[in-house]
Specification:
Blueprint: H1 11-31, E1 42-47, H2 58-70, E2 75-80, H3 85-95, E3 104-109, E4 125-129, E5 139-144, H4 147-160, E6 165-170, H5 175-190, E7 194-200, H6 211-221, E8 227-231, H7 236-245, E9 250-255, E10 266-272, H8 274-286, E11 293-297, E12 304-308, H9 313-322, H10 324-337
Parallel strand pairs: 1-2, 1-3, 3-4, 4-5, 5-11, 6-7, 6-8, 8-9, 9-10
Antiparallel strand pairs: 10-12
Helix pairs in contact: 2-8, 4-5, 4-9, 4-10, 5-10, 6-7
């Protein structure tokens, strides 16, 4: 995975990126240097969404959690990035087909299917990130409330838009994506603007790994809107390119702080700390303290937020700070309507 910025960052950001690349290259070595017998060593499996590591967004955030956990916890890592839901189901079925022979922790993401026997894990523990499937023994589900930080992004979008108009690109028309969309639309409306168009790239997971299509769609949207809000994983890279090529057009990063990918066009990033959830789950499993059940995290728990690009701070930071209480109140109303 190459996390080298395409734009020239500040020295501190460059050093941080360099350190992360070095750790990433060392990760396979770190995970292969166990002092425990193989049967006693923790095994970790990760079933990524389409595109996998290298999307500079969702999957890279999960990978960062694995890197951090590897610095103080010994485990053996296996990862796969399926190209479809059917392939994901096949992979998960193969991983859980036989009983676990030692401590084993599995991560799945974004509601990827778990087959016809969804609670049959063979004695393994499973963490479903961005999923809220029904309860199972040995299953922990973690959802990230994205409405409030997306609401704040809507406020920021109106602040930088002369026409007070924005559009939205989603990877798929699914519940996880639509929570972002509802929050952004609510924030734009609250700030006196309008969302003039919303488009979804695909009916499958490929919508999160198609930057070329996203760029084409964004280029058309920028004729009527000054800002495009992409909720599309790795496809967001195409939106950033479209913004760079059109004067006075802006976008937002997603899942991690992506401002370094477009210092002059990315107003801010709606971040979700999947990395912290991954690290904590591995630590808990290694300590024999895994707890199953459902967990919901958001702005109140510092698990989600809008990180403002400092290039735009003078224009949007005060407005975003002033709207936080209203964003949380709007999120509570949305949760009541979309439990």
């Amino acid at each position: 995975m190459d996390l080298q910025p395409e734009a020239r960052p500040r020295a501190g950001r460059a050093m941080k990126a360099t350190m992360l690349r070095c750790v990433a290259m060392l990760l396979p070595l770190l995970l292969g240097c166990s002092q425990k017998p193989e049967a006693e060593q923790l095994r970790v499996e990760v079933l990524y969404t389409t595109g996998g590591v290298g999307d500079r967004s969702y999957c890279d955030d999960v990978y960062a959690g694995l890197v951090r956990a590897s610095l103080d916890t010994d485990f053996r890592l296996t990862t796969r990035a399926p190209g479809s839901r059917a392939e994901a189901e096949t992979i998960f079925a193969a991983w859980t087909a036989s009983p676990a022979t030692g401590p084993e922790l599995m991560f799945t993401m974004a509601g990827l299917p778990r087959g016809t026997t969804p609670c049959a894990f063979g004695g393994r523990h499973v963490v479903e990130l961005d999923g809220n499937d029904g309860p199972c023994s040995g299953l922990k589900t973690v959802t990230y409330r994205s409405f409030a930080p997306s609401f704040l992004a809507g406020v920021a979008a109106v602040a930088v838009s002369p026409r007070k108009k924005a559009s939205v690109i989603g990877g798929m028309d699914i519940a996880i994506v639509n929570e972002f969309v509802r929050g952004f639309v609510a924030g734009v409306t609250y700030a006196g603007g309008a969302v003039v168009d919303t488009k979804y790239l695909s009916t499958t997971q490929i919508g999160f790994a198609d930057p070329a299509q996203a760029q084409t769609v964004a280029e058309a949207m920028y004729a009527d809107a000054d800002v495009v809000f992409p909720v599309a994983g790795g496809s967001g890279m195409g939106v950033f390119e479209a913004a760079k090529e059109a004067a006075g057009r802006y976008a937002f990063g997603m899942d991690v702080d992506q401002s370094w990918l477009g210092r002059g066009v990315i107003v801010g990033s709606v971040v979700r700390r999947l990395d912290l959830s991954v690290t904590q789950a591995i630590h808990d499993e290694a300590a024999g303290e895994f707890i199953d059940g459902a967990e919901s995290l958001g702005l109140s728990e510092a698990a989600t937020d809008l990180v403002v690009n400092d290039v735009f701070a003078d224009r949007v930071a005060a407005l975003v700070a002033a709207a936080r209480g209203d964003a949380l109140a709007a999120e509570a109303r949305d949760l009541a309507e979309h439990p």
